[in-house]
Amino acid sequence: MKAVKRLISTKRLPYLLKIYGRELTPEVILSCIYAVFYSIIYREKYTELLKIDFSRVPFPKDYKVFSKMAALVNELKDLHLMQSGRLDKLVSKYGGESDRIDMIVYRDSERRFI
Q1: pTM of the predicted model, to two decimals?
Q2: Contacting residues for 72 by C-beta, under 8 A, at least 6 apart
Q3: Could you report the average pLDDT of every consecutive run of 10 residues in the chain (114 residues)?
Q4: Please, where are the H alpha helices in the chain?
Q5: Are 59 and 19 in contact (CB under 8 A)?
Q6: What ranges do the domains of the chain cover?
Q7: Cα–Cα distance between 11 and 13 in angstroms, integer?
């Protein structure tokens, strides 16, 4: 997270403190930045600019929105890292007796082209 602190300009930290009225950890700031970059609206709006320049991060003006974005990214991160409690209940089942793969068989008659 030290690298994240260095990447966020020293001008930006006082700005965030001013608009949110509280200090933010590098993890929370990084989560919000990830949420912005992950947004389809952001990517569509800035497609051309992103091709020629560094990304700009429009932070939300409302702390509740900022906090919600960071929380959603943390949930997404936990899912990606297989650390979410949501993964405790599996919705899929193995088709065989176990999850072990003993042999892979390819049949030309069952080949599908996309």
Answers
A1: 0.64
A2: 35
A3: 64 83 86 89 88 83 92 92 87 76 85 79
A4: 2-7, 12-20, 26-38, 40-45, 47-52, 63-80
A5: yes
A6: 2-87
A7: 6
